[in-house]
C-alpha cells in the first residue's frame, strides 16, 4: 500500500520539481538579462561621454538597449517566461527605484539656487502643471468632439492630461552639466521636474476619484488637497531630516568601532521618510526630497569623515544604478507590451497638444513671475525657451499610463498607454538628443552666459544669498532710487532665512559653526553634481 501511494505520488512530485526548475531557469535568464543590460548601459554611457557625443545621451542609450533586447525577446520563444520576471510594475518603480533617485537629487542639490528660485519652482510645478494638465485634457476632449482623435470622456481626457504632464528631464540635465549651463536655470528645470511629479500623481488620483464616484465636488477640492499634501509631505521630510541631525549630533556614533552603525542609520533614514509619508497618505517624493536637502545641510556634517565618504559614494552609486535600470526597464517593457496602434491620429495630435500645453505652462507662469519681480530678477526669454524645451516625459508618465490600463475601460487605457509610450520615446530620443544644439542656439552656455557670473558677483558683494539673479535688462534704471529700494528689499527678504539658518538652525542641529558649514554650499556648481546617466561614475564630494 505504501509503495503504491509512493508510486502514485511520484509523477506529481516530478511535475512540481520540473515546474520549479523551469521557473528558476526563467528567473535566472531574466536576472542575467538585467545585469547584462546594466553593464552594457554603463559601458555605452562611458564611451558616449568620452567621445562627447551628445546626440545619444546616456538615458537615451539605456532606453534603446531595453527596447532592442525587449524586441528580441518578443520575437523569440522566451518572451512569455522572461516577461514574468522582467516587467515594468508601478509598485516596484514607486517603492524601490524612485526613492534613491529622488533622495540623491535633494542630497546633491545646492540649497542656494534652489531656495532662491523657490517661488519660481513652486509656480512652475504647481500652477504650471495645473495649466498643462487642463490644457492637454481640454484639447484632447475638443479633438474628440471634432472627430480628429479618438473620443474619450472629459474625465478620462483630464486623467490623460494629468499623467502626461509629469516631466523627467534626466537627459536634458545631464547635458546641462556637461555644457556648463547656469545653476539657476538648472535649479528651475530640476526643481520643477521633481515637484511636478507629485502634482501629476495628485491630479491623476483626483481625476480617477471623480470618475469612480461621479462627483463634481472633487474637482474643486483638488487644489486644497494638493496643498495639504504638499505642506504635510514637506513637513514630514524636514522633520525626519532634523531628527536624524539631532541623533547623529548627540549619539556619539563617530567613534572608530561604530562607523558601520553610523552609516547604516544614515542610509535607513531616507527610506523611512519615504515610507512614513506614503503610509499616512502623503507624497513620499516630496518628503524624501526635503529629507535629502535637510540631511545634507545638517546631518551630513555630524558624520565622521569615513562615514561621509561612504554615504556620498553609496547614494551616488545607488541612484546611478536605479536611474539606468529605470530606462532599461521602461524600454524593455515598451517593446514587449501590447500596443494599440489603431488610433494613430490620437498619438500624433497628443504630441502636438502637449507641446502647446507646455508652452502655456512655461510662458504664462514666467509672465506672472516677471510681473512681480524687479527688472534685474526677471527670467530671461531664452531661459523660458530652454524650460519649454526641457519638458521631456519619462518614467513617471509611463508608470501612470500603465496604471490607466487598469483604471479605464478596455480600449481607452490601451490607447492612452500607447500614446504616452510614443511621447516618452520621442521626447527622450529626439528632444534629449538635440538639447546641446538647443542650448548653443539660445546662447546659454559657455562664455555667452553671463547669468552665473552675475550671480557670483552679487554673492561676493553681499555675502548673502540675494535670490534669483539674472541679466540686467534695465541698465538705464539701475541708478534710480526706486531700483535701489527694490533691490534692498529683495536682499533683506531673501537673506532672512540665511540669517536664521546661520544663527539658530546650524548651531542647534550641527556640531560645526555656521561659517564652517556654509562652506559646503557656497559653490553651487559643486553641489549640483548629481547623476548624469549611466556613464557618470565620478563622485564629487
TrEMBL record:
Give GO BP annotations, semicolon-separated: potassium ion transmembrane transport; regulation of intracellular pH; sodium ion import across plasma membrane
Query: GO CC annotations?
Result: endosome; plasma membrane
Instruction: Please list the residue ranges annotated as the Cation/H+ exchanger transmembrane domain.
Output: 40-440
Q: How does it sit in the membrane?
A: Multi-pass membrane protein
- What keywords were assigned to this record? Antiport, Ion transport, Membrane, Potassium, Potassium transport, Sodium, Sodium transport, Transmembrane, Transmembrane helix, Transport
Cellular location of this protein?
Membrane
Task: Write down the superkingdom of origin.
Answer: Eukaryota
- Which Gene Ontology molecular function entries are recorded, alphabetically? potassium:proton antiporter activity; sodium:proton antiporter activity
Q: Where is the composition biased (Polar residues)?
A: 511-523
- Specify where the region named Disordered lies, as residue ranges: 511-541
Report any Pfam family annotated for this entry: Na_H_Exchanger
Alphabetized InterPro entries for the sequence: Cation/H_exchanger_CPA1, Cation/H_exchanger_TM, NaH_exchanger
Q: Where are the transmembrane segments?
A: 28-48, 92-110, 122-150, 185-205, 226-251, 271-294, 314-332, 344-366, 386-403, 415-433
Catalysed reactions, semicolon-separated: K(+)(in) + H(+)(out) = K(+)(out) + H(+)(in); Na(+)(in) + H(+)(out) = Na(+)(out) + H(+)(in)
- Tell me its family: Belongs to the monovalent cation:proton antiporter 1 (CPA1) transporter (TC 2.A.36) family.
Q: Which PANTHER family match?
A: SODIUM/HYDROGEN EXCHANGER, SODIUM_HYDROGEN EXCHANGER
Question: What is the name listed in the Swiss-Prot or TrEMBL entry for this protein?
Answer: Sodium/hydrogen exchanger
Q: Which organism is it from?
A: Zea mays
The opening ranks of the lineage are:
Eukaryota, Viridiplantae, Streptophyta, Embryophyta, Tracheophyta
What's the name of its gene?
LOC100192480
Amino acid at each position: 500500500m505504501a509503495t503504491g501511494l509512493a508510486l502514485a505520488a511520484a509523477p506529481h512530485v516530478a511535475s512540481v520539481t520540473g515546474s520549479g526548475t523551469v521557473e528558476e531557469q526563467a528567473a535566472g535568464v531574466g536576472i542575467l538579462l538585467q545585469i547584462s543590460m546594466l553593464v552594457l548601459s554603463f559601458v555605452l554611457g562611458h564611451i558616449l561621454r568620452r567621445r562627447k557625443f551628445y546626440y545619444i545621451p546616456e538615458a537615451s542609450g539605456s532606453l534603446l538597449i531595453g527596447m532592442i533586447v525587449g524586441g528580441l525577446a518578443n520575437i523569440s520563444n522566451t518572451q512569455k517566461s522572461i516577461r514574468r520576471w522582467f516587467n515594468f510594475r508601478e509598485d516596484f518603480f514607486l517603492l524601490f527605484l524612485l526613492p534613491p533617485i529622488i533622495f540623491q537629487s535633494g542630497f546633491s542639490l545646492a540649497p542656494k539656487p534652489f531656495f532662491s528660485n523657490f517661488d519660481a519652482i513652486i509656480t512652475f510645478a504647481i500652477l504650471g502643471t495645473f495649466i498643462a494638465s487642463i490644457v492637454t485634457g481640454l484639447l484632447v476632449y475638443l479633438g474628440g468632439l471634432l472627430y480628429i482623435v479618438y473620443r474619450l470622456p472629459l474625465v478620462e481626457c483630464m486623467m490623460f492630461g494629468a499623467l502626461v504632464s509629469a516631466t523627467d528631464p534626466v537627459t536634458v540635465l545631464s547635458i546641462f552639466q556637461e555644457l556648463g549651463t547656469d545653476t539657476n536655470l538648472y535649479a528651475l528645470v530640476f526643481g520643477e521636474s521633481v515637484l511636478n511629479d507629485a502634482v501629476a500623481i495628485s491630479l491623476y488620483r483626483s481625476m480617477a476619484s471623480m470618475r469612480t464616484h461621479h462627483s463634481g465636488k472633487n474637482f474643486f477640492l483638488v487644489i486644497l488637497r494638493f496643498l495639504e499634501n504638499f505642506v504635510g509631505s514637506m513637513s514630514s521630510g524636514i522633520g525626519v531630516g532634523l531628527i536624524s541631525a539631532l541623533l547623529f549630533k548627540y549619539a556619539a556614533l563617530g567613534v572608530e568601532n561604530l562607523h558601520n552603525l553610523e552609516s547604516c542609520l544614515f542610509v535607513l533614514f531616507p527610506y523611512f521618510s519615504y515610507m512614513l509619508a506614503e503610509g499616512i497618505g502623503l507624497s513620499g517624493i516630496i518628503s524624501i526630497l526635503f529629507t535629502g536637502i535637510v540631511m545634507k545641510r545638517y546631518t551630513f556634517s555630524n558624520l565622521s569623515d569615513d562615514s561621509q565618504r561612504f554615504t556620498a559614494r553609496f547614494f551616488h552609486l545607488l541612484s546611478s544604478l536605479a536611474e539606468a535600470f529605470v530606462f532599461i526597464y521602461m524600454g524593455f517593457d515598451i517593446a514587449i507590451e501590447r500596443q494599440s496602434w489603431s488610433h494613430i491620429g490620437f498619438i500624433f495630435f497628443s504630441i502636438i497638444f502637449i507641446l502647446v500645453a507646455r508652452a502655456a505652462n512655461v510662458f504664462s507662469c514666467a509672465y506672472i513671475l516677471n510681473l512681480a519681480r524687479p527688472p534685474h530678477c526677471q527670467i530671461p526669454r531664452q531661459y523660458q525657451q530652454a524650460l519649454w524645451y526641457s519638458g521631456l516625459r519619462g518614467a513617471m508618465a509611463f508608470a501612470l499610463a500603465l496604471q490607466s490600463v487598469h483604471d479605464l475601460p478596455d480600449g481607452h487605457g490601451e490607447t492612452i498607454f500607447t500614446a504616452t509610450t510614443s511621447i516618452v520615446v520621442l521626447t527622450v530620443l529626439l528632444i534629449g538628443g538635440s538639447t546641446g544644439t538647443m542650448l548653443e542656439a539660445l546662447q546659454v552656455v559657455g562664455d555667452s552666459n553671463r547669468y552665473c557670473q552675475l550671480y557670483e558677483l552679487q554673492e561676493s558683494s553681499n555675502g548673502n544669498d540675494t535670490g534669483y539673479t539674472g541679466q540686467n535688462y534695465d541698465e538705464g534704471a539701475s541708478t534710480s532710487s526706486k531700483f535701489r529700494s527694490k533691490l534692498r528689499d529683495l536682499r533683506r527678504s531673501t537673506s532672512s532665512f540665511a540669517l536664521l539658518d546661520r544663527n539658530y538652525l546650524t548651531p542647534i542641529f550641527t556640531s560645526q559653526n555656521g561659517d564652517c558649514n556654509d562652506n559646503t554650499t557656497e559653490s553651487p556648481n559643486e553641489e549640483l553634481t548629481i547623476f548624469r546617466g549611466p556613464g557618470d561614475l565620478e563622485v564629487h564630494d
